[in-house]
Amino acid sequence: MVIELGAGTGPVTQALRDGLMAESRIIAVEVDRHLAAALQAQRPDVEVVAADSALLPQLAAARGLPPADAVVATLPWALLAPARREVLLTGIGVVLARDGTFVTLLTLASLCRRTGRGFLRQVRSRFRDLRLGIAWRHITPALVLTAHAPSPP
Question: What's 2-150's CATH class?
């Protein structure tokens, strides 16, 4: 099972669906109810949840979800306050399987900002294995963070 945070209009949702087996379960979380409704209409093969990603552990518990194989997030990390990022990262660690993977993007430009570097430190403190790559084809080049082995909260 894969959980996507910040699904928006669904470009990552589409890529996930295209790259996973048809029977794979995808849960897309989007805070904007209008975007969530449009995505659900467009992608009936995905479970779309209109909710704040900070509520991820509660959403997973309410749905009786098993630990996630992966969490993919396209949230604006560098724009979020450190405490909000901490809540989100803690929630991701709670729902992710012990051998699960967390993947997210951080624009290279945001690494020049204290908030971007702070987010990178927060991820490093939450996961024992962090790998960095660059997505040059992203609208603005982005750092791809792939993290494994979440640390206990």
Answer: alpha beta
